[in-house]
Write a structure and sequence with these properties.
With 440 residues, the protein is α/β, with parallel strands linked by helices. The chain has two domains: 10-232, P-loop containing nucleotide triphosphate hydrolases (Rossmann fold, 3-Layer(aba) Sandwich); 249-436, Rossmann fold. It has twelve helices and 25 strands. The protein has helices at residues 23-36, 51-60, 74-85, 110-117, 133-144, 161-171, 206-220, 223-229, 263-271, 305-310, 312-323, 333-337, and strands spanning 10-15, 41-46, 64-67, 90-94, 121-126, 150-158, 178-183, 192-193, 196-197, 231-232, 249-253, 275-279, 293-296, 327-331, 341-343, 349-351, 358-361, 368-375, 385-392, 395-399, 406-410, 415-419, 421-423, 426-429, 432-436. A hairpin with a 2-residue loop joins strand 8 and strand 9. Helix 1 crosses helix 7. It is globular and about 70 Å long.
């Protein structure tokens, strides 16, 4: 189904009535199937998710950006969408949660994103244990908002050909095309843990898994009809800048323990002239001595706490970077690693870098989840006001004397007080920064 590139990049949104409908598996299956059919395809992921985009990238072979309707400025979203779509024939944007679900207090839904980009929506409906009632779901979602167009349906987890015919026939009177009916396939369920899916880099047999998903998609979905529904992605009205780089030579931790960094930020920093210097704490690598900044992003350090505690080259490298005055910044898992110790889920205590006075615990769990408005007093080379997201199960077991890094509010404007810590040039918090805040 290969075709000549359009003069304008084209895209569509893959959404669902709720989480758990299988839109991630459908999306990565479609991406791999399109590529196998000769169509250059790229993708984006709605919301702050770190894990799904890495599966997208493995399926398509192209970078996957996050497009966050709550945490990002609208002009940045348009710019990133156009940048992503402009490198391919078709861009798929996977939604987050249910189509109309967003942040507490409003905003940030997949429907908002589709409306702002002017893109049609393909609704993935879990048909398991349903017959004609599936049509009521499709009709309700199609009629709910005038600015969000349901342009096609893919039924998922269909029990048989007969079941697929029942749900497809039920939708026909609505005039919304059914693009396919994907059978239930328990052999390609992705293993999960406390923060969601296992990372793509940790998935045993990733390529066979992706090829199996592609086989399901190509057998069940009309890929030509899918591509024909896509609409042009609007060009940005003006040049839009992301957050400036943290430094000019940024050593960034990148491995299975520290995999939660946003590609749109790293690419923007490189475009601004910064040098990105990856290193692996799990391989006991120290940050480059030439780095003026060390960035420890989030991830799963708790799964590797004993190994990190024994990696003296890494820990001593952090200490040397702090002594020479490099900016050292950690987010979530990186923040925990900068502390004195980490207690794992079994209650075992592991020493960490000891650069910030805190200890964290997974033995005493407490979910913190939600968007954050953040402000700081000049500690970071970023605008004073920013937006981000927090999602973790660890708790602060102990905290010593140090300056707070941020003042925080949730998405409803409720003040959360001070979060994070700063001691001279070492700082961090549980928040993942996404974009700057637009101030009146």
């Amino acid at each position: 189904m290969a075709r000549s590139p359009d003069p304008d990049p084209r895209g569509l949104v893959i959404a669902a009535p709720s989480s758990g409908a299988g839109k991630t598996l459908v999306t990565i299956g479609l991406l791999r199937a399109l590529v196998q059919a000769g169509t250059s395809a790229a993708s984006a992921k709605a919301g702050p998710d770190y894990i799904d985009p890495r599966f997208h990238e493995a399926a398509s072979g192209r970078a996957c950006f996050n497009l966050d309707g709550w945490a990002m400025r609208e002009d940045l979203i348009v710019s990133l969408a156009h940048q992503c779509a402009g490198k391919c024939e078709l861009m798929l944007i996977e939604g987050v949660m249910g189509l109309f679900d967003g942040a507490a207090g409003g905003g940030g839904s997949t429907a908002d994103l589709a409306a702002s980009l002017g893109l049609p929506v393909i609704l993935v409906v879990d048909a398991k244990s349903q017959g004609q009632s599936a049509a009521a779901i499709v009709k309700g979602f199609a009629d709910f908002r005038d600015d969000c167009r349901i342009a096609g349906v893919i039924f998922n987890r269909v029990a048989s050909a007969g079941h697929g015919a029942i749900v497809t026939d039920a939708v026909k009177p609505l005039g919304i095309p059914v693009l396919g009916a994907v059978p239930e396939a328990q052999d390609i369920v992705v293993p999960s843990r406390h923060l969601g899916l296992v990372q793509a880099s940790e998935h045993d047999g990733l390529e066979p898994f992706l090829d199996r998903a592609a086989d399901l998609a190509s057998d069940a979905v009309d890929l030509d009809a899918l591509a024909a529904i896509a609409a042009p992605v609007a060009s940005p009205a003006k040049e839009t800048k992301s957050l400036p780089p943290l430094g000019q030579r940024i050593a960034i931790a990148q491995d299975e323990g520290f995999g939660f960094s946003y590609p749109h930020l790293l690419i923007a920093w490189q475009e601004a002239g910064a040098q990105i210097l990856p290193f692996s704490p799990l391989a006991d690598e120290a940050p480059e001595e030439a780095a003026d900044t060390v960035y420890l992003p989030g991830g799963y350090p708790e799964l590797h706490a004993g190994r990190l505690a024994a990696n003296s080259t890494f820990l001593q490298g952090l200490e040397r970077a702090a002594e020479r005055g490099a900016l050292i910044y950690g987010e979530c898992g990186g923040f925990m690693t900068l502390g004195d110790y980490l207690i794992d889920a079994e209650g075992e205590r592991h020493r960490m870098a000891g650069l910030l006075p805190l200890g964290t615990s997974f033995a005493e769990r407490g979910l913190k989840l939600g968007y954050r408005r953040l402000s700081h007093a000049g500690a970071l080379p970023w605008p004073k006001y920013m937006r981000g997201h927090e999602f973790h199960y660890s708790t602060l077991h102990w905290q010593g004397e140090a300056d707070a890094l941020f003042e925080a509010e949730d998405s409803k404007g409720k003040k959360l007080g001070e979060i994070g810590l700063r001691r001279d040039n070492v700082m961090g918090s549980y928040a993942h920064i996404i974009d700057m805040e637009v101030q009146p």
